[in-house]
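Problem statement: downstream parser choked on a complex file, so we are re-checking the raw output for the zinc ion run. The parser issue turned out to be on our end (a line-ending mismatch), but while we're here, posting the original submission so the record is complete.
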Amino acid sequence: MSAAARKDPAAVETEVREKIHLEILKRTGAYHANDHILLPSGQHTTEYIEKTLVTTEPSFTEGLGAVIAKHFAQWPVDMVLSTGPGALILSHCVARAHPSRPIVVYGAKGLSGGKRRVSLPVEFQRLIRPGAKILLIEDLVSTGSTLNLLINLVEQLGGLVVGIGCLWRRTSVELDNRPVFSLVSRDFPTYDPDKCPFCKRGVPLNEEFVRRRHARRPSSVQEPKEA
Ligand SMILES: [Zn+2]
């Protein structure tokens, strides 16, 4: 019997599905793999994801949102809540596909005195009635700190977090034992430059993403000043 045949069928299915989702993310141009990439931290890695590009293909986002909705279909959901533009697009797709027909609301995230902070517009606050069942949606979860703040916020307002759905989650993230469903669960291996196996083999280093980050200046236009 081969090693693959001995594997738990559910694990094999998860692995296959994850490969399909990675392929979808690759087609949006957001996911780069099999490369030798310089990270902003100075470390080297083989994979990189450009968060802003993840939700640029509506049919892909709808398909991925439907997979998340299907996973949570057995739980009644009153509201889908997210922060950030990418997660908001995904949360709309999840809500559209969920049998409970939940409403979609969104918070804002930012920094206050060097600390992360999430807030919810006043108009949305009164929609979270005591006991409201809330599904949190995020695009990429790297540290989990935004989601943990969002959980605190919902609970302060008397709502119940029924689950967390995301596209990508680093496997090392802890979310307070909440039911988390992610289409991809993956950590990138990262290396210090002096210990990097790709540097040792002389593979050229791709500095594109770091360069782009340093030279990051969004396109903008402005109203002319009054004469
Ligand atoms: Zn290297």
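For whoever reads this later: Residues 8-211 form a domain with the Rossmann fold fold (CATH 3.40.50.2020).
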